[in-house]
Each structure stands twice: as C-alpha cells, then as structure tokens.
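input
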Amino acid sequence: MAAEEVKLGSSKPMIATQQEMVENRVPIPYRDQCAHLLIPLNKCRVSEFYLPWKCENERHAYEKCEYELVMERMLQMQKIREIEEKRKKVQGAGAAIPLIPSPANA
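output
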C-alpha cells in the first residue's frame, strides 16, 4: 500500500517580503500570505480615519484572502483525519479478537 501524504502549508505564494512587512509595521500574527493586501488596507484606514464605510474594496480583498487560507487549512485537516481513520481501520482489522475475554454479565 502506498503511503498517503498531505502537502502541508499554503498553495498561495508569499508576496510581501519580510522587509516590507517590518517597514509597514505589520504585526507578527498577521504576516501570512495575505500580508500584501493588509499593507494597503492599513494605509487606507489611517488616511480615512478608520471610517467603516471607507476602504471597502481593500478590506474585502484582504478578508477573502484570509477566508481562502482558512478553507485550505480545513481541507488539509480533513484529509489528514481521513488518512488517520484509514490507518486505524487497517491496524484494527487484525486485532479483532480480544486477549482478555469480557465476563458474560458485563
């Protein structure tokens, strides 16, 4: 049986460089594959005084990118769970007879 593997990580390329993220003061938890969209969004927010009806296009693009990353991670986790379930079924098939019998009235 061939070993099944799940490719970990994102398929999206990292567009913003580390230097760009440092210069634009992107917080470390937000330095992901969508940071290149967060930089112009934060600049827009500052220039527009964080008005909620401004910067809608930038915000939508950033939130869509983050959503796609989350969905990709969820699919990877689902594949990992399926592979582990298959491995448990294969390992459990040979150990069907318990070594210690259970009492009749259990």
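quick obs: DSSP finds three helices and no strands in the chain.
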